[in-house]
Amino acid sequence: MAAAAKAVTSATLMHSALQCNIPLPPNPSTYWYEQIEHNGISPFIPNGSSWQVYRNVKDYGATGNGETDDTPAIQTAINYGGRGPGGNGLGTTGAPAVIYFPEGTYLMSQSVQSFVDTFFIGNPIKRPTLKVASNFTGSTLLYMKDPDLDATINFYIGVKNFVLDSTAYDPDTAFTIIDWSVSQATQLTNVLFRMPQSSQHTGVSTPEGGSGTYMGNLDFEGGLYGINMNNQQYSIKSCTFSNTQTGILISHGFDMVFQNPKFSNCEVGVNATSGGVGNVGSVALIDSTAKDVAIVIATKSQTVGNSTTGDDSIVVDNLATSGVGSTVVAGGKTILTGSVPRTWIYGNAYLKGGPVMGVHDAGVTYQTFRSPLLLDGADFFTMAPPTYQEYSVHQVVNIKTVEGYPVYGDGQTDDMYNINAILARNAGCAITFFPAGTYLVSDTIHIPPGSRLVGEALSAISAIGTKFSNTDAPNVMVQIGLPGQIGVAQISDMLFTVADVLPGCILLQINMAGLSQGDVGLWNSHFRVGGAAGSAVETKCQDFMPCKAAFLLLHLTPTTSVYIEDMWGWTADHDLDGDYTQQISTGRGALIESTRGTWLVGTAFEHNTLYQYNLVSAANLFIGMQQSETPYWQGTGGPAQAPAPWTPNAAFSDPTFANCATDGPNCRMAWFQRIVSGSNLYIFGSGFWTFFNNLGACMGINGTCQDNACEIVGNPTELNWWNLNTRGNLNLLIDDGVVLETQNNNPGSWGAVVAATLTHSGILGRLARRLRRGILS
C-alpha cells in the first residue's frame, strides 16, 4: 500500500466551503456526465489502470440517427477489452463497463447481450431511444442477464434513462424488450417502455428467475404485459401502466411490494394467479390508483375445501379507483369493489387480544394510521434516483482531478486525507464524482452537510488499517453528518467494503436529517464484505472458524432522517472473483435507531451473524420490501453458534440469544429482524429465507433450518407489519419471549406467510373508540 498522497485535514479547506456561493442549477442542454473527464479504472486485474470503464457508444460507431443499424456498434462497446460471459476470466467485479448513450434514436435489428457488471446509462435530459426495427431478428431486445451465470448471482447491473420502443415490430408476435433475470445490486429506473397497443409484447420479463430487490420510476405504454415477474421478491415503485392489457403478471414470486403504481385503461392491474407456473406468497399494493381498469388484482382463493392457506396473501393500502369493475377477484369471484382509503387484508392476521393462532381475514378493512413525518400528502414519501441533470459540468468535481489533492482510487493508495479535504471544500459548492475504482481509507470519511456524491459502476470506498481493527472500540469508515446536523447529503451508485479483516469497522453511519424529505438519501448504494478481489477477506477467511471481518454494515442513529432506495448489505456467501471457500462473519447488518422519518425502499441484508435488521427504539419508519438470508455456516453441525464468534455489545443493543439453550445451534442463528420498543413502524413485505444448516440440508424440527426468525422486545406502539414471509423457520415471530406465529399455523409462500401482525398496533383501539362514539355500526 502506498502512503497517503498528502496529509491535508478537512479543516484546511473548510473556509472555502463557507465562502462558496453556488449558483442556481442552470438546466444545461448537455448532461454533465457526458462532458466530465472519465478516468475510472479496474484496480485488481492485469493492466487495470488502463481499463476503459466509460464507453460512449458513438465512439464505437453508433450513429443514433434512427436509420442506421446501431446494434453492432452497441455490442462492440459492451465487448470491448475482451469482456464476455461470467467476467471472461476477470471475475464478476473485474471488468466493469458503463455503456453510455447520448441523445438520439438507435435503430436495433437484433438482440444485444450484456454481461455482469455492465451499466447502460442514457442522457436523462433527452432520453435516447432504442428502437426495435420492423425486421428485428430474435425475441428480446436487451438480454441483461449474463448467460454464463445463474440468475441468482447476476449482480451489479443497471439500465437507466431510456425510451425503449417496439412499436414498429409486429404486434402479433411475442416480443420482450428486456430480459431482467437478475438479483441484488441491480437498478432499472427512469425508462419508458413504448409498445403497440393490443400486442403480444412485454416490457420487462424475468423468465430465469433471480433474487431481486428493486426497480422503479418506469412507464409502460401498450403491450400484453408491462412486467412479467418470476423472481423471489421485489420492490417495484412508482410505475405507470397505460393501455397495457395486464400491468403486472406474477408468474411466480414470494414477496412482492408494489408502491405507488398507476394503472389506466388496463384489463388487469396485477394478475397474481401465477397461471399455474409457480406460486405467489404475498402481494402488497400501496398508494395506488386505478382508472378504467376491469380488475385491479386477480388472485387465487385461499380457501381449499374446508381449510385456508396463507398463500396468495393480499394487502391493499390506500387505493383510489375510478371506472373500475372489481378491485379484488379471488378464485374468479369478486371479493372487493371500490376504493380502499385505509388497509384491506386477505390472509392470516394476528390481532391484539385476538386468538392465539390468529384469524383468517377473507377481506377485512382496518382503520390504519400513518405518521405525518413519513407522508407526502396522503402517500408515503418516495423520491426518484437523482441524476443532477439540472447542474452543469462546472458544478461537478471529479475527485481524481483536484489540483494539489491527488486521489487515486487504485486500491493501493490511502486516499483518506485528500477525500476528506475535497469533500469539505465541495460541501454546498459542488457535486463530487467518484470515477470507477477502489478508494482506500485508513480512517473515517466525513461527509458534511451540503454533499452530493455520485459513483460510477459502483465506485468502492474500502477500509484499511488499525483504526478499524479493534472489536471493543469500533470505528466508522464513512460518516454522514454529525448528530443534530441538518442539510443535504446524498449518495448514488457507491459501494462500501473492507480491504482486510477488520472486526472494528462500522462501514456506514448516518447521523443527519434534512430540511426536506429526501435531503439525506442513498440510491443504488451497497455493502460487500469479502467475496471479491481487492479484499484480503477473500483469502484470509478460509479457516473453519468464521473470521470476524467487519463489525456492522449500516448504523442509523437516533438523529437521522434518511431515504434509502435499492441497497444490498451483503456478507459474501461465495466468491465472485475466484474459487476461495470463505467463512466470513460480519457481526451485524443494519442497526436502525432513527426517529425523524426514515424510508427503506427495496433493501436486502444477508448473511450477517447476529441479525440482519435491528430496530431499536426506532420511530417513524417505513420499510417497503426487505429480504434476508442467514449465514450459511450457522445451524446444526456449524463451526459456531450465535453470538459466537462475537461477544454481545450492549452499547449496540446486540441480542444475547439468552432465549436459547447453551447448545442449541438452530436457535442460535441470526435473527432476521428484531424490534425493540419504538413507535410508528410500518413494514410492508418481509422475505426471510433460511436455506442451510452448515452449508448442508436442514436439520431442524419438521425439516426446518432455524427455530426463530424474528422477535419483538418490549412494547413498540403503532407497529403495523404486513406480509411476513419465511422459509425454513419453525417460528416466524417471538413476542417478548412467547411464540406468536409459527410455520405450522401459517403455511404458504416459501414456507409460511402472515398477512397482518397487529399485536402492537393501535388499530383495534381506534376501532373500539369509534364504536363507542357510534361511528361504526
Explained architecture:
With 777 residues, the chain is mainly beta. The chain has a domain of 361 residues: 3 Solenoid (Pectate Lyase C-like), CATH 2.160.20. It contains six helices and 51 strands. It has a 37-stranded mixed β-sheet that branches. Strands 31-33-35-38-40-42-44-46-48-49 form a ten-stranded mixed β-sheet. Helix 1 runs parallel beside helix 4.
In which range does the helix fraction lie? Answer: under 10%
What structural class should be given to the helix and strand makeup?
Answer: mainly beta
Largest sheet: 37 strands, mixed
CATH topology of the domain at 393-463 and 476-765: Pectate Lyase C-like
Spans of at least 5 consecutive residues with low confidence:
3-18, 768-777
Residue-averaged pLDDT, rounded?
94
- Note the overall shape: globular
**Number of beta strands:** 51
What is the CATH architecture descriptor of the domain at 393-463 and 476-765? 3 Solenoid
Strand content: over 45%
List keywords for this structure.
single chain; 6% helix; QRT3-like; Pectin_lyas_fold; Pectate Lyase C-like; globular; 777 residues; 10-stranded mixed β-sheet; Pectin lyase-like protein; mainly beta
